[in-house]
User: Which sequence fits this backbone?
């Protein structure tokens, strides 16, 4: 795994008239620009070649309309690409690079290799210890402006206090010298580490946040992650209260003010950023539950009707601000909103993590009334959220039984149950059934006295949902997601499709791939298997690996500020490793070749990771095209369009 | 069926939510997350001494944390009963409970408000893992002095929990009976609703 090649090739995708196609090859290199990110060429033992061809102005771009209007013109896009040999502009010491690139461009022609479903992990895991010492390939610190520790992802605050002191000193040094420190990267090779560590700082007085990553994440991505962490602090206590706490005493110890549950939630957030497949932050979009168009429309109409038909004495006008139906894992189903207002995705991510991570033990017959500050909506005030889980059809949770005799002591949390997707039909023991993940109804009001109005509204909505059988549709949709097989994208392991207009993304379920991954790696990793066959450890590894591919793929297609290089870009990333020697079982594995694609246009973003061994770029582009047209065809199923507007 | 509103108050992590869950679900969770804001639950019981009387408690389980204190008045304002909870292993929590009792006495105009002082976590003292920081007699005499009901309970083992709600239910029912009798003498109407009509529909969605 040490020999890591990373080749990048950015390309322009445009609609071209058929007659122009033949001329493309020569136009290709007009303004090619070679960019060699320094962090990628540092490894003495790992020759890494990275090229980026910025072909922004090579083609004439038909003006404003989206890149293509229908699926068939998407095909033109892809067809317009021709593989060609590349020359490099003079004046750059890139002769070696050129050769490298040339060779890799022709690696398509090499002997056919086996294409497998598995997704190998080509990344170094040298630092992957989380033994509490604070050493890891990912770390978050939060400290106060005065340098007091507030939160650390790994390790005890007492143990990392010294490190935090250093961070504080370094940041203040740069502040004194008049510049602000945003990011710094360590050189490779120090203390036996072969990967560079990147430190990113976010100064949000009275808090100072720092992220460390040895996963080659970009500064922009890490800054996004820090901003989300900061947003949690604001959401839980509002910026006003936060600054007031520190206004009295600069050396205020925020830890004494936070609840244990706050730390749990912060750990949850860090964990979901670092170890799970939650590309929300990476692509800056929301996830939706795929639903039939008619079902989604019925949900919208129903919520709207209940709001408009409500008795104004029970539900005063203007009491409700937003109404949301959300499926487990924060997948939006339906939204009810005032005209001209939408909630920021960060605010919704925070809300969803509150509902589905914080309230894991929430029971369907419980109703919550929770003050939440939505940082992007209004960072100095609170809104009040009525939260209720939607019962599954067939739920029989002894609601009215008075003190049953059986004493059951359940002490485990629902975290494992929530991550599984149980089949809809299989009857389950009561305890298990009660822990199956449930959709939630969230009604947001600006009035702290609004609980009973929201409760009435929620009850009416719920009764209507049940009467129209919509709860059943909702849960059937959740229990039976689209399978990858229904998406005509052979050779693709996983993808993320973001519709920019909706600010929402779709990613296929991973269950099947997780199985494959765990089979593949069970021989090499010491995973502690759980009884359901999928070891948590390997699933986590799969998610981590996939996220790491995605963040690389994305980083290769966007500038440091997170904006795409061009209005329209296709960028390839290929990871290769040398053939390995026989493993412990005596099997010799072939070389690993993983191809990733980012395709960014003004209307969508597509990121995909191919199966190991897939090298035919045209086939990959064909799959990419298929995914895009599939997603466009199913747009009304995959995304919430406007919601119900009142 | 009579409906009464009940609110739980007390310092953070004294076990308010655990008591409610023992009462409503008869279950206990060692690792309960702390409450944010407030949770609303309901539970119906039959009075032991009056078997044909059913009482539905609508329960506000509030967050004990200081930062949510400003929200508390909206939860206790229309309450018929308040459970003020302290932790028998934490002397501080009784002081906090006293301040809640004072607040209730001064802010709630309803003279019929039933306040019950509840010492939780007695199981910790019984199995010897924690010393008892609040003696039963001390708390009991404080409760008697201020006209509070008093109980020691364990949400973990369940001991004493249902007795709390039984006693509150009986007391509220006795009050209700008097006022019902009084009002039926004055007017010939039977008003089962209390001061504030409940917005909670008896045919709840999740039954």
Assistant:
């Amino acid at each position: 795994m040490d020999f890591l090649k990373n080749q990048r090739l950015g390309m322009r995708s445009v609609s071209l008239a058929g007659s122009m196609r033949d001329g493309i090859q020569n136009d290709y290199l007009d303004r090619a620009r070679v960019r060699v990110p320094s962090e990628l060429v540092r490894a003495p033992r790992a020759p890494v070649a990275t090229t980026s061809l910025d072909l922004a102005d090579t083609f004439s771009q038909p003006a404003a309309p989206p890149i293509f209007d229908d699926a068939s013109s998407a095909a033109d896009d892809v067809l317009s690409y021709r593989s060609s040999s590349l020359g490099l502009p003079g004046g750059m010491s890139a002769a070696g690079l050129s050769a490298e690139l040339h060779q890799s461009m022709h690696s398509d022609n090499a002997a056919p290799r086996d294409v497998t479903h598995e997704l190998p992990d080509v990344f170094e895991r040298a630092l992957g210890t989380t033994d509490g010492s604070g050493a890891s390939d990912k770390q978050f610190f939060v400290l106060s402006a005065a340098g007091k520790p507030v939160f650390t992802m790994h390790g005890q605050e007492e143990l990392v206090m010294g490190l935090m002191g250093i961070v504080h000193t370094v940041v203040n040094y740069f502040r004194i010298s008049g510049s602000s420190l945003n990011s710094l990267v360590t050189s490779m090779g120090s203390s036996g580490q072969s990967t560079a560590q990147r430190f990113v700082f976010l100064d949000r007085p009275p808090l100072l946040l720092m992220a460390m990553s040895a996963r080659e994440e970009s500064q922009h991505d890490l800054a996004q992650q820090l901003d989300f962490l900061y947003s949690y602090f604001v959401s839980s206590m509002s910026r006003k209260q936060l600054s007031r706490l520190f206004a009295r005493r600069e050396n205020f110890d925020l830890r004494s003010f936070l609840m244990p549950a706050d730390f749990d939630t912060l750990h949850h957030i860090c964990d979901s950023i670092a170890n799970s497949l939650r590309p929300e932050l990476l692509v800056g979009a929301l996830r939706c539950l795929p639903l039939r168009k008619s079902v989604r429309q019925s949900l919208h109409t129903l919520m709207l009707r209940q709001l408009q038909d409500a008795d104004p004495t029970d539900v005063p006008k203007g009491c409700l601000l937003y109404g949301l139906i959300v499926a487990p894992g924060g997948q939006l189903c339906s939204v009810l909103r005032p005209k001209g207002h939408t909630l920021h995705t960060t605010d919704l991510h925070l809300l969803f993590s509150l509902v589905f991570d914080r309230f894991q033990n929430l029971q369907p017959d419980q109703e919550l009334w929770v003050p939440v500050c939505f940082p992007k909506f209004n960072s100095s005030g609170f809104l009040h959220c009525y939260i209720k889980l939607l019962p599954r059809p067939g739920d029989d949770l002894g609601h009215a039984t008075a003190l049953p005799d059986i004493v059951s002591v359940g002490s485990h949390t629902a975290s494992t149950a929530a991550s599984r997707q149980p089949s809809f039909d299989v009857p389950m023991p009561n305890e298990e059934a009660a822990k199956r993940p449930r959709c939630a109804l969230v009604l947001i009001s600006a009035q702290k006295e609004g609980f009973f109005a929201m409760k009435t509204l929620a009850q009416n909505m719920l009764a209507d949902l049940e009467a129209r059988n919509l709860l059943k549709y909702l849960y059937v949709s959740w229990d039976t997601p689209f399978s990858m097989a229904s998406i005509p994208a052979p050779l693709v392991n996983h993808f993320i499709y973001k519709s920019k207009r909706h600010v929402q993304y779709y990613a296929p379920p991973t269950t099947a791939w997780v199985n494959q991954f765990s089979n593949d790696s069970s021989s090499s990793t010491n995973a502690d298997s759980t009884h359901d066959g999928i070891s948590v450890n390997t699933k986590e590894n799969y998610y981590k690996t996939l996220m790491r591919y995605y963040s690389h793929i994305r980083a290769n297609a966007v500038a440091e500020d997170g904006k795409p290089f061009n209005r329209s870009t296709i960028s390839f990333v290929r990871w290769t490793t040398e053939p390995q020697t026989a493993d412990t079982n005596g099997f010799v594995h072939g070389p690993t070749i993983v191809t990733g694609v980012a395709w960014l246009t003004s209307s969508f973003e597509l990121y995909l990771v191919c199966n190991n061994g897939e090298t035919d770029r045209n086939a990959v582009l064909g799959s990419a095209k298929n995914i895009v047209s599939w997603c466009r065809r199913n747009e009304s199923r995959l995304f919430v369009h406007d919601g119900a507007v009142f | 069926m009579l409906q009464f509103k009940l609110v739980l108050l007390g310092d953070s992590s004294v076990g308010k939510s655990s008591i409610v869950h023992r009462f409503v679900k008869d279950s206990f969770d060692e690792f309960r997350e702390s409450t944010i804001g407030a949770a609303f639950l309901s539970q119906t019981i039959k009075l032991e001494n009056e078997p044909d009387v059913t009482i539905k408690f609508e329960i506000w389980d509030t967050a004990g944390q200081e930062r949510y204190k400003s929200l508390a008045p909206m939860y206790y304002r229309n309450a018929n009963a308040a459970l003020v909870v302290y932790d028998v292993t934490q002397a501080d929590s009784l002081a906090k409970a006293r301040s809640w009792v004072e607040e209730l006495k001064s802010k709630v105009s309803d003279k019929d408000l039933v306040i019950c002082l509840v010492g939780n976590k007695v199981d910790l003292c019984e199995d010897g893992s924690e010393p008892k920081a609040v003696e039963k007699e001390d708390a009991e005499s404080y409760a008697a002095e201020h006209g509070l009901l008093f109980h020691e309970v364990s949400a973990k083992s369940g001991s004493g929990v249902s007795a709390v709600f039984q006693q509150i239910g009986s007391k509220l029912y006795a009050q209700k009976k008097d006022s019902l009798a009084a009002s039926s003498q004055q007017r010939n109407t039977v008003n089962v609703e209390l001061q504030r009509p409940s917005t909670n529909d008896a045919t709840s969605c999740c039954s």
